[in-house]
Amino acid sequence: MLVNGINIQQNPVAVKKMIGYVPELADLYEVLTPVEFLELMAGLYQLEPAISSARIEKMLQAFGLGNHQHQRMDSFSKGMRQKVLLISGLLHNPSIIILDEPLSGLDANSVIIVKELISQLAEQGKTIFYCSHMMDVVEKVSDRIVLINQGSILADGSFEELQQLMGKGSLETIFAQLTATDNLRDAAAELLEAFRNEGEHHE
Question: Which residues does residue 22 pair with via DSSP β-bridges, in sequence order?
Fold first, then answer.
């Protein structure tokens, strides 16, 4: 198997250097500060210290973590940890980026920054795999969408192509049409039913 012309079996390390991965959940070394953790990651990717230090400083500032860069991460919120995780996945400027629910825990401004960042990285020619249940975001940032339900591919194409196939509407509507909308509505109705007769049990 070739990745950017490199055989992954013959040279797996070279391939890994081209890939940036941001998982939804990851264990950070919480006793470290963001700078210490990111310097560790930079070392693993064999980045020059002068280059990595400048990148770390700029990226932490961009995400609003400049004042926390020397603070241990065991006191960080989920959103703050997610920002450090995003930086660690992009620090080595990978050509292939895998993002699994990258907006998890982020504040509204950081969500805007990440969405804009994804768009600009794609414009630079980078390949980005974006996995998410947030259909409105997928709709806006993806040029090719693969809808998967219970391990099966339901549709594959651009948002415009999916609209032509299923009719106008949001990506969420298209996904609902492909995955039994009536069952989902019935499930929501059943949840509401749990509250309707509460007064009768207290008489």
Answer: 99
The tens-digit pLDDT sequence of the chain (203 residues) is 888 889 999 999 899 889 999 988 777 898 999 999 999 999 999 999 999 999 999 999 999 999 999 999 999 999 999 999 999 999 999 999 999 999 988 999 999 999 999 989 999 999 999 999 888 889 888 999 999 988 899 899 999 999 988 877 899 888 888 886 556 667 777 777 777 766 555 55
Task: Point out which residues pair with 156 in neighbouring strands.
Answer: 146
**What tokens appear for 177 in the block?**
């049409």
Q: The pTM is what?
A: 0.82
Amino acid (1-letter code) at residue 39: E
Give the closest residue to 88 by CA, choosing from 16, 28, 14.
28
Please name each of the domains of the chain with its CATH number. Answer: 2-132 (3.40.50.300), 144-196 (no CATH)
152 CB burial (10 A radius; 0-12, 13-18, 19+)? exposed
